[in-house]
Amino acid sequence: MATFSKYLTAKNSSIAGGILLALYLLKRRRRTGHRDGKGGSGVVLNAEKDGRKDRAAVDKVFFSRIFEILRILVPQLICKETGYLILIAAMLVTRTYCDVWMIQNGTMIESAIIGRSTKDFKAFLFSFVKVMPLIALVNNFLKLGLYELKLRFRERLTKNLYDQYLQGFTYYKMGNLDNRIANADQLLTQDVEKFCNSVVDLYSNLSKPLLDIVLYIFKLTSAIGAQGPAVMMTYLIVSGLFLTRLRRPIGRMTVTEQRYEGEYRFVNSRLITNSEEIAFYNGNLREKQTIYSTFKKLVDHLHHFIFFRCSMGFVDSMIAKYVATVVGYLVVSRPFLTPSHPRHLHSTHSELLEDYYQSGRMLLRLSQALGRIVLAGREMTRLSGFTSRITELMKVLKELNAGKYERTMVSQQEKESDSSAEKLVLVPGSGHIINKDHLIKFDHAPLATPNGDVLIRDLTFEVRSGTNVLVCGPNGCGKSSLFRVLGELWPLFGGRLTKPERGKLFYVPQRPYMTLGSLRDQVIYPDTHEDQQQKGISDHILKEYLDNVQLGHILDREGSWDSVQDWMDVLSGGEKQRMAMARLFYHKPQFAILDECTSAVSVDVEDFIYSHCRTVGITLFTVSHRKSLWKHHEYYLHMDGRGNYEFKPISEETVEFGS
Question: Any bridge partners for residue 433, and if so which?
Answer without folding.
Answer: 497
